[in-house]
């Protein structure tokens, strides 16, 4: 079997050093659509070094995003065809505000392996800490089609009950035609997001936006709309990737206030509100 669950779970964690500076933070923020309008004081917190704060989702690309999903596929006990792999979901827990510049140690391991019948799910956990202690923990859910069915633990469903009532806020965020080209400079150079011929071979009409770019755009919308623009209020952020986004489309972001949390649903306006992010929740102070 290409996935040996016992071997993957027993493997020694892998550690490596991450480092980033203000330019990495600014580039990431620009890659998720910050800076419009360019002179807006609220936007300058994402783009101007003298006012800079760090959106917590920057953690997904800090140090060029490694270790991450791809590193999970090279762990002992895991031998799979990349064509069968989907990034199914992402969860981030922030232990304290991310500094504008930093050096930290990232330790990655397979935290869980689930048997979903027609697919296997790997949970790649990355824990990041600097000299002052833990910074963040991220879990990437990696779906591997065709690798289930060995009788293992199915794991949690991950599906949330729909939020009650109408959304408290609905905002729309345009995705620029060059959004994926800019975002990929933060570390994810997968040609699926830039090369039309490669995208067609993968079954898409044209290059698609990175799921983690949509993830960042959505968190920024929640912070700016319901959290007073204060990135330090975010405690955790989880989502399930439910569909693709094409550059040039518009994201419709629906938000429901809950106690110490915001429930979110994201869809693509131009494709009849096709779901993009589902089971999404931002926990906050």
Explain what the structure shows:
By secondary structure, the protein is an alpha+beta fold. The chain is 19% helix and 34% strand. The chain is built from seven helices and ten strands. It has helices at 5-10, 22-31, 41-47, 69-72, 179-183, 196-201, 211-226; strands spanning 14-20, 85-94, 102-115, 119-130, 133-145, 169-174, 234-241, 250-258, 261-268, 274-284. The chain has a ten-stranded antiparallel sheet with strand order 1-3-4-5-2-7-10-9-8-6. β8 (250-258) and β9 (261-268) form a beta hairpin. The longest helix has 16 residues, at 211-226. The model has no long low-confidence stretch (mean pLDDT 93).
Quote the average pLDDT. Answer: 93
Choose one word for the global shape.
globular
Percent helix range: 10-25%
Order of helices and strands: HEHHHEEEEEHHHEEEE
Range of strand content: 25-35%
Number-wise, the strands total 10
- How far the N terminus sits from the C terminus, by CA atoms, comes to 44 Å
Biggest sheet: strands side by side, in what order? 1-3-4-5-2-7-10-9-8-6
Radius of gyration: 18 Å
Structural class: alpha+beta
Largest β-sheet summary:
10 strands, antiparallel
Q: Number of helix segments? A: 7
Low-confidence segments, ≥5 residues, pLDDT <50? none
